[in-house]
Design goal:
heterodimer; A: 384 residues; alpha/beta; TIM Barrel; 13% strand; B: 249 residues; Methyltransferase, Methionine Synthase (B12-binding Domains), Chain A, domain 1; Rossmann fold; 11 helices; 5 strands; 60% helix
Chain lengths: 384, 249
């Protein structure tokens, strides 16, 4: 009777360490989707996942699949094809189809410039001065930005049932930057804090609708970004304006949550963990050892690979080495710290998946040697 | 030697006592605020507090009382902004507080700038400032511009989403030698390199100096893209501009 195992080959090998014999599996026994989700919750994995939790689209990738910016932002098929290069070309465990940060703001009537082939979209005019004027359009989820993203997620879910699909939501703090303008918004945190609280209150339902729609379309998890970062505001600002709201979000979202906040966030990671986020996607300015010490078992940590110096300006070897250093810190998964510059070379990005493969061949994600349960007896017999 | 306790304005005294840590900065500011008049201390205190209405009123009153525009700018507005800059650098205040103080400074400068422009004071140099192509973020750039103008520079603000060709054209039009490029996004930072390349192509690279800054920008990245200097914040930007201006003047 043959094995029921249909996955990739597993090669048990005897490894001797500290006077003990045990079995180590050098093969992969998890699908990328299962690996990503398990790591997201801080669970058991066969190797550390290498992911994209932002955009890894490059000009190289656009050429490979003949899908180009800016058309790919508003066309589900082109978006799906381009996003899938994260898995097909880079070997990453996730696909993230929302390349830009305009999804909610555009559908809420912000003036969007969709960019060019080598420039990112941006909001170029701000439409809101009073929270009482804010309305969610009746066709909000059917507007072009949502139509493309939700369509792309459905296509990707169908085409890649075993790969992690990550959705992206800009939370009310960041949508506020787009709709109100960042300068006025930040000044009002001091001059009129109640107005900011009201903005957050009225915008939150639009962000939750976006999260629910992406999960329903097939996303495995939502990367939620609210840019209350150190370069802009104090940790107390996060605590006073967002902490309680995020506690509600993490309960009500209805799916695994990954929080993203740019920059040097060491002084607020404790608040992020308290908010109940399942995972924090963090930037290279944060020491991963320190982040792990603060987060403990309350929240998993992913990201940390530097974009401008390592991925964009560095070589494959630079990136491989940087990944190895981050992996040594024992975080739950590696990924670029944010959306990579479009001129980043695809060969450099391939070091992400290569490094976790090599690292996990000799290490468990917690830095120890791999110790797995032996495979079923009939399967072991086949592969021995 | 000037003493902290000799400073007339209590708010200024407390600010120096509570927020300044570096001995040379304490000494410099104690000496500065001992030297300036109580009226200028009041302007500086209102600016640090972000009170634009009071800065506006006190500036008008000082000008009406015969105080020179340059004195109000240096001893009141810039002196106050210097304390704000140190508090920002040290993490005591963040961008919202700096923006509110900048708004107060703008209220004062609205009275000062026309007078200085009419008096024919020679600027230290002309700086072309812009956020690079594809990037629409301008808070940091605007703060730098305000401090550069306060520091004696003429600044041409190209705004956001500035193409390399626009930087080149502005340098040619204004015969400027200093360029400041800002980027907030890691996705747009490479356009700094493209701008430097455009100056090489135009045969202008040797005659200009590039300053770069922005939240994700590092000194190392600045070197990689061929810039001549990196400024961590608006205060550092002014110091860098003064240093580079000596090289090209």
């Amino acid at each position: 009777m043959g094995s029921a195992w249909k996955g990739p080959a597993i090669s048990p090998a005897k490894v001797k360490t500290k006077g003990e014999n045990f079995t180590r599996l050098t093969g992969e026994w998890m699908t990328p989707r299962r690996r990503f989700l398990s790591a997201l919750y801080g669970g058991r994995v066969d190797k550390v996942p290498a992911m994209t939790l932002s955009s890894v689209v490059t000009l190289d990738a656009m050429e490979i699949v003949d899908s180009w910016f800016p058309e790919a932002h508003l066309d589900a098929e082109k978006m799906a094809r381009l996003a899938a290069t994260a898995h097909e070309e880079l070997g990453l465990d996730t696909i993230m189809p929302v390349f830009h940060s305009q999804l909610e703001a555009d559908a809420l009537d912000a003036a969007t410039w969709w960019g060019t082939v080598d420039n990112w979209p941006a909001t170029n005019d701000h439409v809101l001065t009073d929270p009482e004027d804010f309305k969610i359009p009746s066709d909000y989820l059917k507007r072009p930005s949502f139509k493309a993203v939700l369509g792309a997620i459905r296509l990707l879910r169908k085409r890649y049932p075993d790969v992690g699909i990550v959705g992206k939501v800009y939370g009310p703090w960041s949508v506020g930057y787009h709709l109100v303008g960042i300068e006025n918004y930040l000044m009002d945190t001091i001059l009129d804090p109640d107005k900011i609280r009201r903005y957050l209150e009225v915008m939150l339902p639009a962000c939750m609708m976006s999260a629910h729609a992406q999960l329903e379309a097939g996303a495995d998890a939502i990367m939620w970004a609210d840019h209350a970062n150190r370069e802009l505001v104090s940790p107390e600002t996060y605590r006073d304006f967002l902490l309680e709201m995020h506690k509600e979000v993490t309960v009500e979202m209805g799916g695994p949550s990954i929080f993203h906040c740019c920059g040097e966030t060491t002084d607020r990671i404790d608040y992020f963990a308290e908010a109940g986020w399942d995972c924090f996607h963090f930037e290279s300015q944060v020491d991963p050892h320190v982040a792990k010490e603060i987060a403990g078992d309350r929240m998993s940590l992913m990201g940390n690979i530097n974009n401008p110096t390592t991925l964009f300006s560095g070589t494959y070897e630079d990136t491989y080495e940087a990944c190895m250093k981050v992996l040594e810190a024992g975080i739950n998964g590696i990924a670029p710290e944010g959306s990579v510059p479009l001129g980043t070379k695809i060969d450099v990005l391939r070091a992400l998946a290569d490094s976790v493969r090599d690292y996990s061949d000799t290490h468990r994600p917690d830095g120890r040697l791999v110790v797995h349960n032996p495979p079923p007896a009939d399967h072991a017999a086949e592969t021995d | 030697m000037a003493q902290l306790s000799d400073i007339a304005n209590e708010f200024i005294r407390l600010e120096i006592e509570e927020f300044l840590e570096r001995p040379e900065e304490i000494e410099r500011n104690v000496a500065l605020f001992n030297r300036v008049s109580p009226a200028m201390q009041d302007i500086a205190a209102a600016l640090i507090d972000g009170d634009d209405v009071t800065v506006d009123r006190l500036t008008r009153e000082a000008l009406d009382g015969g105080v020179g525009a340059l004195e109000i700018m240096d001893d009141g507005l810039i002196a106050g902004m210097g304390i704000v800059g140190i508090k920002f650098r040290e993490g005591y205040v963040f961008v919202p507080e700096v923006l509110v103080s900048a708004r107060a400074m703008k209220a004062g400068m609205a009275h000062i700038e026309p007078i200085l422009a009419a008096s024919g004071v020679e600027p230290i140099g002309t700086v072309i400032m812009g956020t690079v192509q594809g990037d629409l973020h301008d808070i940091g750039k605007n703060l730098c511009i305000m401090m550069l103008r306060g520091g004696g520079f003429t600044v041409i603000d190209l705004g956001v989403n500035t193409s390399p060709a626009e930087f080149v054209a502005a340098v040619e039009e204004h015969r400027a030698h200093l360029i400041g490029m800002s980027a907030l996004l890691t996705t747009t930072m490479p356009n700094m390199a493209k701008t430097v390349e455009a100056f090489k192509d135009a045969g202008l690279r040797e005659s200009v100096r590039f300053m770069v800054g922005g939240a994700p920008v590092t000194p190392e990245f600045g070197k990689d893209v061929g810039a001549d200097g990196y400024g961590k914040d608006a205060l550092a930007c002014v110091e860098l501009a003064k240093k580079l201006a000596v090289e090209v003047n």
